[in-house]
Amino acid sequence: MTTEGLPLSSPSDGNPAEAMELQPSSAVRELDYGALCFPIPPFPDGFTTTADVTPSSDWSGQGRAVAALELGMRIRHAGYNIYVTGLTGTHRAEDLAELLQQFTVGQPTPGDRVLVQNFRNPDRPRALYLPAGSGRRLHDELRQLVDELRQLLPKTFRGETFEEEKERLSERFSGQGEAINRRLAEHAQQGGFALQPAPSGEVVFIPLKDGRPMTEEEGSQLTEEERADLRRRQRELGREVKAVMREQQTLMRQLGREVKQAERRVADETITPLINELVERYTSDDVRVWLGDLKVHMLDHLSAFQEQPPTPQVPPFMFFSGAGEEDALLNYSVNVLVDMSGAQGPPIIVEPWPTYKNLFGAVERMVDRHGRLITNFTRVIAGSLLRAHGGCLIINLMDALAEPFVWRALKECLKTGHLEIEAYDPFALFATAVLKPEPMQIDTRVVLTGPPEAFQILYLYDEDFREIFKVRADFGEEADGDSARDNVVAQVTRIAQREGLPPFRADAVARLLEEAARRLGDRRKVPSQWSELADTMREAAFWARKEQHDAVDACDLQQAIEQRTYRSDRIEAKIRELIRDGTLLVDVDGSQVGQVNGLAVLNVGGYEFGRPSRITAVVSMGAQGVIAVDREAKLSGKTYDKAVFIISAYLRHQYAQDFPLSLAASVSFEQSYSGVEGDSASAAELFALVSALSCVPLRQELAVTGSVDQFGVVQPIGGVNEKIEGFFRVCRTVGLTGRQGVIIPARNVDNLVLGHEVLEAVRGGQFHIFPIRTLDEGIEVLTGAKAGAVNEPGTVHHCAAHRLRMLAEGLRRFAHDGVNGDAARHDGA
Length: 829
What we know:
The protein is α/β, with parallel strands linked by helices. Helix content is 46%, strand content 15%. A seven-stranded mixed beta sheet has the order 23-24-22-21-26-29-30, with helices on both faces. A five-stranded parallel beta sheet has the order 8-13-16-1-17. A three-stranded antiparallel beta sheet has the order 3-2-7, covered by helices on one side. The chain is elongated and about 165 Å long.
């Protein structure tokens, strides 16, 4: 019987399926217990617990990321810094550092960085680069040198030779001074005056008469001419006294210079041999030049080595430091910024707190006795960028972006290859001392860890980022099971021993491998990252200790998994309760036209579970096409809207090849108020639409998940395990009948890692799982009738096509009658 042969005016026009006898469907193979069980690979011979295994770090399945890291670490050209994405876990930075260490084997150990006083420009301390271990040695040797000079120089200055030379100089200059004084006294006597020193240090002029001091009476008897002459001679003598005093001062200065030159000659004989010993031990030209400047500064400041008076005691409640400006010997210290003594190879540093100070270093300040903020070159500290010179520094990008000024300064440092340590503190504006060490050249490979979204944004909008971070290492979450399962035992062992957990038995490792495949959503894969599984191991260890087990077994692991579900499934249990009580309308038995159970996945704070939803479809005459109620109510996402268009395209492709597709069909997720997204319900919506068109009822004990393309091919979806288990728990709550089950895409079979409760129900025939590749296979499972073709009588598609043709014909006839009626009314008027 063809579509054209159906009586369009028969009483069964509203239900095409009642006008004919439907052909039974062919049997669709369901998955049995053996096909659903997770295949456990064989473990190494003799393996019983992880206590018998040597832990190791393995990066199986991360070949691309490892190759990128090796390239970035071995190419030392500028710009080959690394951005790492996809690396997760509590110890991810430490694990990454351990991996990067492998690429530095055989590379030389970088040198030390020290900061010393710049005697030519004290505000710009000098940075010296020394071989590894030499910085600490230079620091110790300079301290010994200063201590030795503090003992030798005072003894030298107290020695007989130096004292005799000072006496000779004193006698020579004393004789010259006495001669000057005698000449002045004679000249004053010739001028009629005697000189007498006053207690204040000045010289008093006493007039003479007949070679003796003039009395007051004699002075009062002087005439005005005599008085004026006396004042004139006194002024002339005063000028001469001043000239003599200047001559004496020059003589004293000359004596001081002569003494200092003598001190310098004596000190030079002591200092030079000691400095030369240091010069011979250091081959760096910078160090030798600085040691030369050091010697000159010491000879110019010999007073620093004299015996100092005792320092007054500072009350314990005072918090200031007085050493900043009082200790003259501080100039001869060595500030070791980076000490690589004892290191083997380039450093690998993890910076957990990438603040400005921690990354770039700082010039620290202290409070002096006057309440001022002061500093000196010994208060300069190095940051992790400098300490990682020659190796690499691992930073979290999001942490760095959250710190003020860090990102811009980091880019500038990596572009120029120079690092400047500056004062960075909230009180910098009130500091009385300005100190800025010389720029230091660095060769530090920076490894940023962060999300892939941040990489895309920076790569597109930050030009500097593209030039600085040329290497991206993208870590995946999974590895091929056939090549990586042998390393699972080693990974479990490594985590257990690092975390201090009890050993894991073989059955526990097998159960852990099954849980890993479930979380990956692929039974063929094993995890390449173990952050979430490490949590499961810790919780299993807790239950093992609670049960006083000496090792973790499969029961402990199962207990940890069940307890994690129990702690998180309150909302899921409430939904099952609402379905059982009839508040949420979900049928799990019987048959209905235009109604099917769809499956969605809900996520509540990291816990995912499947929830069934009733999907209904209603068809009527009209030209609006397929109307998605949720989309019209603006409760849908873009992916869902695309799936609605695909549904319309399938209906045109399947039925409307020789007549126009004219219908008004609405599809709705009943009792859904929070919105829908995704295309995994498109197959279920099409089943409801085909049922509404053909009037063939669908089995309500089955739930459906899967997306579909325009040709009716069922495509895989995500969350298949959660969806199956969610519907199973609903059926178990309402009551298992032995006919319930789930229809899934056949391409999701490799993603099945179901819970043991579902597997046992399948083995007992209480639950069924049907994999389908096309919509036709799903139609036959849901209806029990043959899907067939539009021109094959007794099939679902034939009934649906017949109904669509009837709707098109009825719409045409209605439009024709409406036009004729309007014309007749117009003529009558």
